[in-house]
Specification:
With 59 residues, the chain is an alpha+beta fold. The chain has a single domain, classed as 2-Layer Sandwich (Ribosomal Protein L30, Chain: A). The protein has 2 helices and 3 strands; from the N terminus they run βαβαβ. It has a 3-stranded antiparallel sheet, with no helix packed on it. The longest helix has 10 residues. The protein is globular.
Length: 59
Amino acid sequence: MARIKVTKRKSAINRTKRQKLTLEALGLSKIGQSVEHDATPSILGMVTKVNHLVSVEEI
């Protein structure tokens, strides 16, 4: 399974509750924080929903 690195780039202030919870589920709380995940369909779906707040790179 491929791995991806997700980095939070923008603040969650003035975002919907659903987007805030998605960031929390991905393990992101602070700007600049990075986490690694397997590229499963559920993780990729969450990243798609908050792609305007994060950057993604393949490892």
